[in-house]
Predict the 3D structure of the following.
Amino acid sequence: MYLKQSIRRTLLAAGLALMASPFAALAAQNDGSAVKPLRVILVPADGGTEDGTKKDFQPIFSAISQATGLNFDLKVGQSYSAVVEAMCGGAADIAWYGPASYLQARNRGCAELLALAVRHGESVYYSGIFARTKSGINGIQDLKGKRIALGDVNSTSSFNVPVAMMLAAGVNPARDASAIVMAGSHANVLKALSEGQVDAGGASFDSFEKAVNAKAIDPSTIKVVAKSAPIPYPPLAIHPKVAASVKAKLRDAFNNIDKMPGISKDQIRGYGGGKVDGYTAKVSEKDMADAGKLFDLVTDQVKVDIMKKASAR
């Protein structure tokens, strides 16, 4: 009970801090003009740094601005929950979420799907459980007694899906791991794994690829233990109260950005800063809701138990 109350207090404090932050401007949603740029807030997939996640998405928003004349102000939230609160508090007009945090905002009536990236003809990505090559871990069952790193508790692919895969295989991390490290982000999970601080961890394959390309980790020291079923690509969402004309202009631009004159292929980027084929605004709320079934096993109690285990060091 104390831990649940503590988590609630932490979230409340985060929300109050947000109200005093640069995100907080609880007026009508902005219109994309020079004086009222559309406020974009991004979940901290690269550790919450302005130079990480923001750099990933600046190219595509610059392209959309070039195509539509709309103006954007990009910021990175300090946590997944802070991004949900920014949107639901009216302090953001557009957000980039993981599917799990999007569903939280959607269920509160403050987000609707805007666009998904398309890569190799699909709008899906994958989560995974990774392990150190010499850890002796060859399957999920081998995670028992090992040190496990996970990302933000609201992250789809660095927490919810990896934990769901463990539970489905009969491994309860709160009970069976020797230790749990809540690393806060995909990048930090992979860093902890690369440095031998843990034996295994959960992260997206996009983040793994980005870390390898940036030479942040040595891929020869890490192996894939399990790969998830396809997950809808982390969506861009828009606040329902943004003007219908602005929504229409944005959806048209995202649908056609890869074919618009003057837009280079290098500008069309997505999760992890990787180049994508384009974007689609023809997105399904049902498909996103169905994605939530991938982590139905990850109840609030499971999260509380994992957080409690992580704090017991």
Remarks:
- The CA atoms of residues 147 and 199 lie 5 Å apart.
- The chain has two domains: 2-123+233-282, 125-231+294-311.
